[in-house]
């Protein structure tokens, strides 16, 4: 797996470098398995005191997982769940790792990129960070344990991010609780040098203001409650153009996926651990990947790239509550 992910031991630092820059370091099953196995080895290695994770190239940490392969497997009649089983086990290991893990959230941090970084001990965004959980656009849901963090975000900010899939900056990520600080992208080598020498992560936080904080009012007002249709109606009718823009984002997404995501996020709010949320993710992954909207969403966004998905339901109002409840059945 050295061509897709690299493991480097420098001083007392174990470095993980996702190495698919042309694919924005998107995760494959082989990469996920290799990272999880290496974490297990380093957990018991006294020569490694700290672990870091970063992405090769300058475009980003990770653009997510290989959902095209999952779609292909499901359409071929397979379960197609091997990737998620392995990925969520890796996410859990990052969250519970017995040594500090420092994540470099530079550039694009999407979906699975959030999973390999946002549960880490120290999460460093940059002036180039573009973080998002955009899964509802492909008929999926924000997985990788992200709902554990989204449910704890200020007010209804997590609901906004989960339903719309909106992309946020590093400063926004800090405000939302997905990152700890914003640093200059060029400062990462100095952080690694300190870690390799056995010191704590040394960095100078940038002064950065979250634009999301200025929108907290209408976000809290519009995204409250358990009714996705009511949320969309409030956004459409709001006087703030940013609220109406959020409505437009939701309207592009799978109505079934948005409805299931809202229900899952509300359930996650009562789950105290990441592992409980990941267990819910694993159940939902099988249901959603076998739903027609997943195959159609991945087709429209990543296969044919015509961006004109034909969803099962015409609108949020057309999604029966029974279908949403069935997604959570054992």
Structural summary, described in words:
The protein is α/β, with parallel strands linked by helices. The protein has helices at residues 29-43, 67-75, 82-96, 112-115, 146-150, 157-164, 170-176, 188-196, 216-222, 228-237, 241-252, 255-268, 274-289, 292-303, 321-326; strands at 5-10, 13-18, 50-55, 60-62, 101-105, 108-110, 122-126, 130-132, 181-183. The chain has a 6-stranded mixed sheet, with helices on both faces. A 3-stranded parallel sheet has the order 4-6-8. Helix 1 (29-43) links the parallel strand 2 and strand 3 (50-55). Helix 6 runs antiparallel to helix 12. The chain is globular. The relative contact order is 0.12. The model has no long low-confidence stretch (mean pLDDT 97).
Briefly characterize the structure.
With 330 residues, the chain is α/β, with parallel strands linked by helices.
Q: By helix and strand content, what is the structural category?
A: alpha/beta
Q: Count of helical segments? A: 15
SSE ordering: EEHEEHHEEHEEHHHEHHHHHHHH
What's the helical proportion of residues?
40-55%
Tally of strands: 9
Order of the strands making up the biggest sheet: 1-2-3-5-7-9
Question: What would the principal axes of the Cα set say about the shape?
Answer: globular
Over all CA atoms, what is the radius of gyration? Answer: 19 Å
Mean pLDDT: 97
Largest sheet: 6 strands, mixed
Strand content: 5-15%
Poorly predicted runs are none
Distance from first to last alpha carbon: 36 Å
């Amino acid at each position: 797996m050295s061509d897709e992910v690299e493991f480097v031991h420098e001083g007392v630092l174990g470095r993980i470098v996702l190495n698919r820059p042309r694919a924005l370091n998107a995760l494959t099953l082989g990469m996920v398995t290799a990272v999880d196995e290496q974490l297990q080895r380093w957990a018991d290695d006294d020569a490694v005191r700290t672990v870091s994770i970063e992405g090769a190239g300058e475009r980003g940490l990770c653009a997510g997982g290989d959902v095209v392969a999952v779609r292909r497997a499901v359409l071929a009649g397979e379960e197609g769940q091997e990737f998620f089983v392995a990925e969520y086990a890796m996410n859990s290991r990052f969250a519970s790792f017995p040594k500090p893990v420092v994540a470099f959230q530079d550039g694009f941090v999407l979906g699975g990129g959030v999973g390999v970084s946002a549960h880490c001990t120290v999460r460093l965004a940059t002036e180039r960070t573009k973080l998002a959980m955009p899964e509802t656009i492909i008929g999926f849901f924000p997985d990788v344990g992200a709902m554990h963090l989204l449910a704890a975000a200020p007010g209804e900010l997590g609901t906004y991010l989960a339903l719309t899939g909106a992309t946020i900056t590093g400063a926004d990520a800090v405000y939302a609780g997905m990152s700890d600080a914003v640093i200059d992208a060029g400062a990462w080598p100095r952080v690694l040098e300190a870690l390799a020498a056995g010191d704590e992560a040394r960095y100078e936080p940038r002064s950065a203001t979250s634009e999301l904080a200025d929108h907290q009012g209408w976000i809290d007002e519009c995204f409250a409650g358990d009714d996705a249709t009511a949320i969309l109606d409030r956004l459409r009718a709001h006087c703030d153009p940013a609220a109406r823009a959020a409505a437009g984002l939701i309207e592009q997404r799978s109505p079934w996926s948005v409805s299931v995501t809202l229900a899952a996020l509300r359930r996650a709010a009562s789950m105290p651990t990441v592992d409980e949320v990941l267990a819910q993710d694993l159940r939902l992954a099988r249901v959603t990947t076998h739903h027609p909207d997943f195959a159609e969403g991945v087709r429209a966004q990543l296969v044919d790239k015509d961006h004109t998905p034909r969803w099962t339901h015409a609108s949020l109002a057309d999604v029966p509550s029974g279908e949403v409840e069935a997604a959570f059945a054992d």
